[in-house]
Amino acid sequence: MAKIPEIELMDKGTTACPGCGAAHAMRYMLKALGKKTTINIPACCWAVIPGVYPSRNLGIPLLYHAFETTGASSSGIRAALDAKGVDPREVTVVGFAGDGGTADIGIQALSGCLERNTDTIQVMYDNEAYMNTGIQRSGETPYGAWTTTTPVGSEKEWKKNPKKNMMEIAKAHGIPYAATVSIGHPESMIEKIKKAKDIPGPKFIHIYAPCPTGWRSDPSDTIELCRLAVDSCTFPLYEIEDGDYNIYKKPKDKKPVKDYLKRQGRFRHLPEEEVEKIQENVDREWELLLKKEEISSEE
After folding, report:
1. How many helices (H) and strands (E) in the chain?
2. Is the entire prediction scored with pTM above 0.85?
3. Residues 56, 62: contact at Cβ < 8 Å?
């Protein structure tokens, strides 16, 4: 496993909330990519975390753009660098967006970027809702979760749909590499992002990044929640390289999903039968992923 590089391209001063997973995501990602990186960011928490102009806390070039245009903006930056004769291996172009700006509002631009085979890394830092604008549900909000647009109350209107599987959506574009990573496992996160950097063509990285404010969790639990998500197989760590699946973290002692859910106020309302339903779905998806890896090894 790769060691965590000492380089720091994110300064300590930010406006991030205590325990912010997105702040960890940016810090580790830049440690993996290094200074020869340019990043473009839509409306999201990271549009405010660096502070108010002229303050900034990133040691790399940064472009802000419209909510829905991450993939298109990345493509434009890469085209400009190509016109100047800058090799993709010399400067890495990163589109960095939240789950709303990736899986929902920005999915058309993301699809276009992947389909055009643009040599970029498209990152979704996933805090499972539109946290910057008031904790509204997104396509990545998990089943059963409370948000301000999936209220609970007597009507029990918690989120009734599963998360979009963005790894499968990215894979369907025939890209060379996609990976799920977690701020709770920084060494493997850095290793996978470094790997993506060296692969020509479009890459997709799904970063698990808790939001204590929206998850109604203790800020000091952020890293523990990440590890529980992996150890319960709620958020498996795996990669898809040239269509082949590789799971790089298989829990030896698989934790029950309820251990993960009970640490978050957004699931506090769920009756036992709903928790069991979530457990069954996690088990089913985990077995399916294991089968995909088995088929990949046989080919």
Report:
1. 10, 8
2. yes
3. yes
